[in-house]
TrEMBL record:
<dbReference type="GO" id="GO:0030170">
    <property type="term" value="F:pyridoxal phosphate binding"/>
</dbReference>
<dbReference type="InterPro" id="IPR015421">
    <property type="entry name" value="PyrdxlP-dep_Trfase_major"/>
</dbReference>
<feature type="modified residue" description="N6-(pyridoxal phosphate)lysine">
    <location>
        <position position="200"/>
    </location>
</feature>
<dbReference type="GO" id="GO:0000271">
    <property type="term" value="P:polysaccharide biosynthetic process"/>
</dbReference>
<comment type="similarity">
    <text>Belongs to the DegT/DnrJ/EryC1 family.</text>
</comment>
<protein>
    <submittedName>
        <fullName>Glutamine--scyllo-inositol transaminase</fullName>
        <ecNumber>2.6.1.50</ecNumber>
    </submittedName>
</protein>
<dbReference type="InterPro" id="IPR000653">
    <property type="entry name" value="DegT/StrS_aminotransferase"/>
</dbReference>
<dbReference type="InterPro" id="IPR015424">
    <property type="entry name" value="PyrdxlP-dep_Trfase"/>
</dbReference>
<keyword id="KW-0032">Aminotransferase</keyword>
<keyword id="KW-0663">Pyridoxal phosphate</keyword>
<dbReference type="InterPro" id="IPR015422">
    <property type="entry name" value="PyrdxlP-dep_Trfase_small"/>
</dbReference>
<feature type="active site" description="Proton acceptor">
    <location>
        <position position="200"/>
    </location>
</feature>
<keyword id="KW-0808">Transferase</keyword>
<dbReference type="Pfam" id="PF01041">
    <property type="entry name" value="DegT_DnrJ_EryC1"/>
</dbReference>
<dbReference type="GO" id="GO:0047310">
    <property type="term" value="F:glutamine-scyllo-inositol transaminase activity"/>
</dbReference>
């Protein structure tokens, strides 16, 4: 344990962990099951193009979520692009700026303008009260993002979308295994998009899916992800190559078998962080709604520098030196990244909550590679830092 500030790795001490502790370390399921599937795949000699594992994975995801269709693709960014195109969004689409850049890029990639809306500081999701004033004659849709698996205010968004005849989509990249009013995320709006990236709660190496109850939309998406082919030698629609491969589906199926174990471990980790950080002033752990199902995949802290006397960025630097690779998702907000920063230089004025949150937020490691012993080492370090902010500042100033 650290007893003096010279023990901190940033000042030359030995790092708390000998190996890097990452946010987003993959949750791996049963290795034997996965390898068996790979053998089956090789025996069958069927590697991609809607093979048996892809079909099984889609069916199992649809069943788990209670949604009619799951169209799996190679990643969630492509899933967003396809869903946006299949829903015929054009002109302007309202999204939060507090999201991963992919939500904005999926629109701009097809020359649709993302219009950035502010968030609710408690839920970190798009603030429905701020949407209506952003609607223009060019607006065709809204994309809500269930950040950290915390569902958006779906009810309010649905009402606004209906009232203004807008399409409603959800970027549910973080929300596999989460529910809203008791119903699994996946069947809300016109379509929802899941990510199965390696860093996500449930991974298929790379992967994503569009889930929907709309038969026509699902049919269109299946064409679109496979160049528009309808049977051999017959293209009936514009398409691309968005297909998920068999090896990814094999990983996805294996992950799916361990979903309850992942939730249990994440929940236990979350409770440990909660217990250890509960009385610390100026550090707030994001609270999940206990009435809903949740994957607890994200440990999100807000550092209030006015109370802690140490900035979020300094915290990240100190933790990183100790091999705790804390992350600043989603700093600085899409509106401050290119090309949006150039397109909308004053967007920040309309996004006060996004600006505040993106400067306070810090994510810590969880998942199957973490456990309460490691977490207590991290939280003890946080307490040590907070007890020594003056000495750290003095040493920095020397
Ligand atoms: N919408 C939202 C709201 C999203 O958050 C995302 C993705 C998307 C859409 C798009 O989904 P995909 O197209 O990716 O399916 C990471 C992920 O790459 C990205 O999927 C994720 N969101 C985002 C929040 O995080 P980076 O650029 O921060 O990744 P990187 O390489 O820094 O990895 C994160 C940490 O995970 C590192 O500290 C190392 C660790 N890691 C990573 C990988 C890949 C491992 O330990 N093992 C690994 O295999 O974006």
């Amino acid at each position: 344990l650290k007893t003096k500030i010279e023990d901190l790795a940033i000042f030359g001490g030995k790092p708390l962990f000998s190996e890097k502790q990452h946010v987003g370390r993959p949750n791996l399921g049963d290795r034997t099951q996965f390898l068996n599937r790979i053998n089956d795949m090789l025996d069958l000699n069927w590697l991609t193009n809607r093979g048996p594992f892809v079909k099984e994975f889609e069916q199992k995801i649809a069943d788990y979520l209670g949604v009619k269709h799951c169209v799996s693709v190679c990643n969630a960014t492509i899933a967003l692009e396809l869903a946006i195109r299949a829903l015929e969004l054009t002109g302007e689409v309202i999204i939060p700026s507090f999201t991963f850049i992919a939500t904005a890029h999926a629109l701009q990639w097809q020359e649709i303008t993302p219009v950035f809306c502010d968030i609710d500081p408690i839920t970190h999701t798009i603030d429905p009260d701020k949407i209506e004033s952003m609607i223009t004659p060019r607006t065709t849709g809204i994309i809500g993002v269930h950040v950290w698996g915390q569902p958006c205010n779906i009810e309010a968004l649905t009402t606004i979308a209906k009232k203004h005849n807008l399409k409603l989509m959800f970027d549910a990249a973080h929300a596999m295994g989460c529910s809203y009013q008791g119903k699994m995320i996946g069947s809300f709006g016109d379509a929802e998009v899941l990510s199965f990236h390696a860093t996500k709660f449930l991974n298929s190496f790379e992967g994503g899916a569009i889930v929907t109850n709309n038969d026509e939309l699902a049919e269109k998406l299946i064409l679109m992800e496979n160049f528009g082919f309808s049977g051999l030698d017959n293209v009936i629609y514009i398409g691309t190559n968005g297909k998920m491969s068999e090896v990814c589906a094999a990983m996805g199926l294996t992950s799916l078998e361990s979903i309850n174990e992942f939730i249990e471990i994440n929940h236990q980790n979350y409770q440990c962080y909660q217990q250890e950080l509960k009385d610390i002033k100026g550090i707030k752990l994001f609270t999940y709604n206990q009435q809903e199902q949740c994957n607890y995949q994200y440990i999100v802290l807000e550092i209030d520098e006015e109370i802690t006397n140490i900035s979020r960025d300094k915290f990240v630097d100190i933790l990183t030196a100790e091999n705790i690779i804390a992350r600043r998702y989603f700093y600085p907000g899409c509106h401050r990244m290119q090309p949006y920063k150039s397109y909308f230089p004053h967007a920040g004025l309309l996004l006060p909550e996004t600006e505040k949150l993106s400067n306070k937020v810090m994510l810590l490691p969880t998942g199957v590679n973490m456990n309460p012993d490691k977490i207590i080492k991290i939280t003890d370090l946080i307490k040590f830092i907070l007890d020594n902010t003056c000495s750290i500042a003095n040493k920095d100033n020397k």
